From TrEMBL:
One Pfam family matching this protein: PAE
Enzyme class: hydrolase
Listed EC numbers: 3.1.1.-
Example of a GO MF term: palmitoleyl hydrolase activity
Entry superkingdom: Eukaryota
Family to which the UniProt record says this protein belongs: Belongs to the pectinacetylesterase family.
Signal sequence interval, chain numbering: 1-24
Organism: Stylosanthes scabra
Name under which the protein is recorded: Pectin acetylesterase
C-alpha cells in the first residue's frame, strides 16, 4: 500500500514537471544587485534590489524585454512598514527563482515574437511603482523611499550586460508594474542607445481616477499620499504637474499624453482589481452588500451591474489620450481579470482572450514590429465568449 502511494505521487510529480516544461521557460534564478546599495538604490528595508534574467539567443540576442513586477503601493509610514519585511519590501524575502511565462516565455509556440529575446523581470520592493526619491531615512523606522534609484541601477546593470547593444527594447509590467512602465517609459527610452526601437507595454496598469460606489474618490486620495510619502513628483512629467498637480499625474489618463515613447495598453475594461479597489473598496461597502459582485461581476444585481457598466464607460473615456495617438495601441477586452501578459492562458494559447480574432500576443507583436496597428475596445460585458473563466489573482496583487 505504501509503495503504491509513493508511485502515485511520483506519477503526479512527473506530470507536473512535464506540464511546466511544455509551457516554456520554467524557473529563472534571482540576481541580487549588491552594488546598488552604495548608490542608495535599495528596497524599503534597505536591502539591495533584485531581478531575474533569462538570456536571449539567435536573432533575439540584441532584443530586450524588461518586465516590472507588480504588487500595489504603500501610502504612508504605517502602510510601508507593513510590507517592509515581505517580498514587496525586501529582497531578503524574495523567492530565489521565478517562473517565466506569457510575454517572458522562451518557447516560440507560446511567445512567437519575443521568445528568443533577453527577458528580465525586475522585482518590486519600493511601493511607489519605481518613482520614489527621498534622500533622508528616518532612523525610527529605517524606511527607504528609493524606487526611482532602483529602476536606474538595474537598467544600468543591464546595459553593462549587453543592453548597450540593444536593437529592440520593450518596457513592460503588470499592475503597479504596468503603471511603472507608463511612468518610466520615456526615462527608459532615454537610457537605451539611440537608434534602437523602444516601446512600452503596460498591462493592467491603466488605473483611472473615478468615484467609488459611495461617491468618494478613494483612489485619488490614496495616490496623493503615495506621491507625497515617496517624493514621486521628481519623476513625474513637469508638463503634467503644471496642469494637474503631482497626485493626479500618478494616473495614466493625465500623464499619457505627455509621454513621447510609443505605448501599447493591455487592460480589461472590467479590471478585477480596479472594480474591487477603485469602484468598490472595502471602505465604501461596510456591510458587504457588494461582496458577491466584487468576487464575480456575473453575480451583480441589475443595479450593481449598472454601476459596473458606468465604470467601464469612465475607463473608456480615460483612454482618450491613447486613442488619439497613431503611435499608441491598445487591447481593451471585457474580461473580469487583472494582468494578462504574464499568464500563458491569457497571453497566447488557443483559448486565450481575443479581440478582432486576435490574441494579445499577436496584437502586441504586430504593433511592435509595425506590421499592423491595433486599437481595439471590446463590447460590454458579457459579450466576449473568449474571456472564459475569470482569474482574479488577488493574492499576488493585494488590495488597498
Amino acid at each position: 500500500m505504501e509503495m503504491s502511494r509513493i508511485w502515485q505521487w511520483l506519477n503526479i510529480l512527473v506530470c507536473v514537471l512535464l506540464f511546466v516544461k511544455a509551457e516554456g521557460s520554467g524557473f529563472v534564478p534571482i540576481t541580487i544587485l549588491e552594488d546598488a546599495e552604495s548608490k542608495g538604490a535599495v528596497c524599503l528595508d534597505g536591502s539591495p534590489p533584485a531581478y531575474h534574467f533569462d538570456k536571449g539567443s539567435g536573432e533575439g540576442v540584441n532584443s530586450w524585454i524588461v518586465h516590472l513586477e507588480g504588487g500595489g503601493w504603500c501610502n504612508d509610514v504605517t502602510d510601508c512598514l507593513s510590507r517592509k519585511d515581505t517580498r514587496l519590501g525586501s529582497s531578503k524575502q524574495m523567492d530565489s527563482q521565478v517562473g517565466f511565462y506569457g510575454i517572458l516565455n522562451n518557447e516560440q509556440d507560446y511567445n512567437p515574437d519575443f521568445y528568443n529575446w533577453n527577458r528580465i523581470k525586475i522585482r518590486y520592493c519600493d511601493g511607489s511603482s519605481f518613482t520614489g526619491e527621498v534622500e533622508e531615512v528616518d532612523p525610527t523606522n529605517n524606511l527607504h523611499f528609493r524606487g526611482a534609484r532602483i529602476f536606474e541601477a538595474v537598467i544600468k546593470d543591464l546595459l553593462a550586460k549587453g543592453m548597450e547593444n540593444a536593437e529592440n527594447a520593450i518596457l513592460s509590467g503588470c499592475s503597479a508594474g504596468g503603471l511603472a512602465a507608463i511612468l518610466n517609459c520615456d526615462r527608459f527610452k532615454s537610457m537605451i542607445p539611440s537608434g534602437a526601437r523602444v516601446k512600452c507595454v503596460p498591462d493592467a496598469g491603466y488605473f483611472i481616477d473615478a468615484q467609488d460606489v459611495s461617491g468618494t474618490k478613494y483612489i485619488e486620495n490614496y495616490y496623493n499620499k503615495v506621491v507625497e510619502t515617496h517624493g514621486s513628483a521628481k519623476y513625474l512629467p513637469e508638463s503634467c504637474i503644471s496642469k494637474y498637480g503631482a497626485g493626479l499625474c500618478f494616473f495614466p489618463q493625465y500623464v499619457v499624453q505627455d509621454i513621447d515613447t510609443p505605448i501599447f495598453v493591455v487592460n480589461a475594461a472590467y479590471d478585477s482589481w480596479q472594480i474591487r479597489n477603485i469602484l468598490i473598496p472595502g471602505a465604501a461597502d461596510p456591510h458587504g452588500s457588494w461582496q458577491n459582485c466584487r468576487d464575480d461581476i456575473s453575480n451583480c444585481t441589475p443595479d450593481q451591474l449598472d454601476a459596473v457598466q458606468g465604470f467601464r464607460e469612465e475607463f473608456i473615456k480615460a483612454l482618450s489620450g491613447v486613442e488619439k495617438s497613431p503611435s499608441k495601441g491598445m487591447f481593451i477586452d471585457s474580461c473580469y481579470i487583472h494582468c494578462q501578459t504574464e499568464m500563458q492562458e491569457s497571453w497566447f494559447k488557443t483559448d486565450a482572450p481575443q479581440l478582432a480574432n486576435t490574441t494579445i500576443a499577436k496584437a502586441v507583436g504586430d504593433w511592435f514590429y509595425e506590421r499592423k496597428s491595433f486599437q481595439e475596445i471590446d463590447c460590454a460585458f458579457p459579450c466576449n465568449p473568449t474571456c472564459g473563466k475569470p482569474v482574479l489573482n488577488v493574492k499576488a496583487h493585494p488590495e488597498i
